[in-house]
Design a protein that fits this description.
With 398 residues, the chain is of the alpha+beta class. 40% of the residues lie in helices and 13% in strands. Among the domains are: 83 residues, no CATH class; 132 residues, no CATH class.
Length: 398
């Protein structure tokens, strides 16, 4: 019995359209560059997508720092959800704090905090279905009609089972498929490390530009890819570990995207300020999405994110429209977004997407002293006070 047959026999949700799940899995797996990762993706993630409710039944064990038996890292928030750290004693009627089971020897904790997230994934992707209520007609992606029902859906005893229909429409909008997309990017990055180590470029062979950590990273990546080959189909902990590593990698990329692309390299530094030049829309979009979790304004944010910065270049399409006229310059302060400059459109804006005041313009002026990169006429078009300040700095340096 092969793994795929085993998966079909272990259906927990009685999914009536496994073929649609396979289509989504195959589309994602086709983006993987390593054949071993492709084979693993069509086997293990497929199993957990079909049997997603098994993640609710299995306890979640994770590494944790040592703490006393009654100490807890998370507590139930009376307002809903979960919060970190200790909270005051619950008031009458409020939910009691949820303590984790901690193992001091293994330094692990067993928790059910992942249940709301998994339950949300189930509700977003799977809908209950009763064969007796099948419609005569259906739209694309809807459950089968009365004439399309399979014999096992109407066999004796089927009315006692719970059937579910997988919704194949707009899967990219769901959190689960977002995490699977992060998994694809993570595995492709690991594959690229192995490829670079086997086929070093002339830049890597150069003593000044050589990355001494590439060999170690490539060895770790090869170990991971070999681990995928031998992972059991229903290895819940192994699957969670890889998925968590992919999430950590995605966070790292979002926080410091310049480490993973040749675009957006550092061109100027002054104290806690740094400036990077971006010429590709995908890079500009990543740079623009790095922000603090600070609401732009009350209510829904117009940028669809609600975090600073509020630059419209969060969209790659909008960023592309700007980059057709010239590069974007991202200024960070203490490694956080601070100013975005696009001189062809006369915009030098802060994280609120507003023109700079004189104090901020004076603060970032030392980054623009390169006369060949920033002609005075171009600076004036972006911000007159910034241009005057830069001009005075240039004169003092002569």
């Amino acid at each position: 019995m092969n793994a795929l047959t085993l998966v079909d026999l272990l259906l927990e949700l009685n999914v009536i359209n496994v073929k649609d799940i396979d289509n989504e899995i195959n589309k994602l797996a086709a983006r993987l560059t390593d054949p071993r990762a492709q084979k693993w993706f069509r086997r293990v993630p497929r199993f957990f997508l079909i049997n997603i409710d098994r993640l609710l039944k299995e306890p979640y064990v994770a590494k944790a720092e040592p703490r006393s038996q009654w100490a807890s890292k998370y507590y139930a928030d009376p307002k809903g959800g979960w919060v970190k750290g200790r909270t005051p004693a619950p008031q009458p009627g409020e939910p009691l704090p949820v303590r984790e089971q901690y193992d001091p020897e293994k330094q692990t904790y067993t928790t059910a905090l992942h249940e709301p997230a998994v339950q949300r994934d189930i509700e977003q992707s799977f809908a209950p279905f009763k064969p007796t209520k099948a419609k005569a007609k259906r739209l694309h992606g809807e459950p089968p009609t009365k004439t399309e029902l399979q014999p096992w859906m109407t066999a004796p005893g089927a009315e006692e089972k719970e059937f579910h229909h997988f919704d194949p429409i707009q899967t990219r909008r769901r959190e689960l498929f977002g995490r699977l997309g992060e998994l694809i990017n993570y595995l492709n990055w690991q594959t690229s490390l192995v490829t670079k180590a086997k086929n070093p470029t002339p830049e890597l062979e150069d003593e000044e530009n050589r990355d001494d950590s590439l060999g170690a990273n490539a060895e770790e990546a090869e170990v991971l890819l070999r681990k995928l080959e031998t992972m059991k189909t229903d290895d819940i902990q192994g699957f969670r570990d890889v998925l968590k590593a992919a999430g950590d990698f995605s966070t790292h990329v979002k926080d410091k995207p310049w480490l993973f692309t040749k675009d957006g390299q550092l061109i100027a530094r002054s104290g806690p300020l740094t400036m990077r030049k971006v010429i590709f829309p995908e890079t500009a979009s990543m740079f623009s999405k790095r922000g603090q979790a600070t609401p732009t304004h009350a209510g829904a944010a117009s940028d669809g994110n609600g975090d600073m910065p509020a630059w419209c270049t969060k969209s790659a399409t909008t960023a592309n429209s700007y980059l057709k006229d010239g590069p974007l310059y991202f200024v960070d302060k203490n490694n956080r977004p601070y100013v975005l400059a696009h001189f062809p459109s006369a915009q030098v804006y802060n994280v609120h997407d507003r023109p700079l005041d004189n104090e901020m313009a004076k603060e970032i002026a030392p980054l623009f002293v390169d006369l060949h990169r920033f002609p005075l006429a171009e600076l004036k078009r972006g911000n007159a006070f910034l241009a005057d300040t830069v001009n005075r700095i240039r004169r003092n340096q002569q």
